[in-house]
Write a structure and sequence with these properties.
This protein is α/β, with parallel strands linked by helices and 274 residues long. It has eight helices and twelve strands. It has a five-stranded mixed β-barrel with strand order 7-11-10-8-12. A two-stranded antiparallel sheet has the order 5-6.
Length: 274
């Protein structure tokens, strides 16, 4: 019995020491940006960027299990860049969009690739009332959800799930992109209840992934910025899905131009200097 108790105590000690070692390793990670993971939902959004950066597809996925995410990797200067696409939705023949695939890909990217910085890049809706126009590029200041309605004290705040983006005033000044709150929901349309919550969130950008990524980034303690190109105007007079499809290629081109500029600026810098 004494031997079993001793073995149990030893096992507990090993677990504690491993935890302390991981915390110490995390604390003393390189403070400069040397590895970047760019998370993108749709292949059409990512393809021009992958081509522009000259990245190569990892034929064998670095991620565990049946996750369909596709990873492209390469060096941009001295910085390792991974572009991670959510991949195909099995059984549906379309891209895996929405918060669940985004969070799954983000978790594996954080756990396996160990980036110093996460960038969530993609297309989104903008608001004329906020000065948004098709083709604008935004940097996120904050992430929220607008469709998680849980009218119970405490859970209501959790439902909104507000998370601040990494502060990057120098990046904003250098590139001149617009800034604003990015609000996430799992629907392309915008019923009145969502529109009301978007206004409460003070949203300048409406999209379908960023808050899911932010939830994971916060768990891992990895800074997150988001770069969003506007395809449609939520409070405009055009049908959302028609305007989205009409402008998807142009918005992907805008990302192809914007994201490399972001990478070039942040590479090698300390997070606090962004």
């Amino acid at each position: 019995r004494d031997v079993l108790e001793l073995a149990s105590h030893f096992a507990s000690l090993v677990v504690i020491l491993r935890s302390l070692y991981k915390q110490r390793k995390q604390k003393h990670r390189a403070m400069s940006v040397k590895t970047i993971a760019v998370l993108v939902a749709m292949e059409a959004e990512a393809a021009p960027l992958v081509e522009r950066l000259g990245l190569q597809k990892q034929e064998k996925s670095p991620f565990a299990g049946p996750l369909p995410a596709v990873v492209f990797t390469g060096l941009v200067g001295d910085t390792t860049v991974h572009v991670c696409i959510n991949g195909p939705a099995l059984g549906f023949g379309v891209d895996s969009v929405g918060t669940v695939p985004a969070a799954l890909t983000a978790y594996q990217a954080c756990h396996v690739l160990r980036p110093d910085l996460l960038i969530n890049a993609g297309t989104a809706g903008g608001f004329a009332a906020k000065g948004g126009s098709v083709g604008d590029v935004y940097l996120a200041t904050r992430f929220c959800n607008h469709d998680r309605r849980i009218q119970i004290p405490g859970f209501d705040t959790y439902g909104i799930g507000a998370v601040d983006a990494a502060r990057c005033p120098n990046l904003t000044d250098a590139l001149g992109f617009k800034t604003g709150v990015v609000s996430t929901g799992n629907s392309l349309d915008c019923p009145s209840v969502d529109h009301e919550n978007l206004q409460k969130n003070d949203a300048s950008v409406k999209e379908m992934e960023a808050a899911g990524v932010a939830h994971v980034a916060r768990m891992f303690g990895i800074p997150l910025i988001a770069v969003k190109a506007i395809t449609d105007i939520v409070d405009g007079d055009k049908t959302t899905h028609d305007e989205f499809m009409e402008n998807l290629a142009a918005a992907a081109k805008a990302l192809q131009d914007a994201v490399p500029k972001v990478i070039a600026f942040v590479a090698g810098k300390k997070i606090e200097d962004l």
